[in-house]
Amino acid sequence: MALIKFPNRTVNSDVVNPYVNNFFDNIFNDSFISDRLVTRVPAVNIAETDKSFKIELAAPGLQKSDFKINVDKNMITISAEKKEETSENDKLYSKKEFSYTSFTRSFSLPDSVNYGDIEAEYVDGVLQVTVGKKEEAIVAKRLIEVK
């Protein structure tokens, strides 16, 4: 895939009306609008210890039942889906509000992973997935005495 850089402004584009380009640049570069156009995925921390890999995924407002964790070959996929529907009936009208949240994150696993030793826990808005390492991948630490 090649990345092509396009210039921000074309030559002589401000000659016709310099205010038009500034107006549209301000609208499309506004963080309020651009934040709504970008799909949100939760932030992830990945750490390696002597015996395991730890994946921490920030996903507040969800429940344990909203998460789905799949392991396929050397890929671990963490996804969540939450649907909420509330309805209020008041006099002659009905008001309904829908909320739909979903995301999917995938990570490749190294060869040193023990696939039988994967655990997940959801505490205080953070999903913690612990992926154990194989015994031969765990490096034994020892003190070497200098003679």
TrEMBL record:
InterPro entries, alphabetized: A-crystallin/Hsp20_dom, HSP20-like_chaperone, Small_HSP
A Pfam family matched in the record: HSP20
Family, similarity comment: Belongs to the small heat shock protein (HSP20) family.
Domain of life: Bacteria
Protein name: Hsp20/alpha crystallin family protein
Matches recorded under CDD domains: ACD_sHsps-like (cd06464)
Domain (SHSP) ranges: 35-147
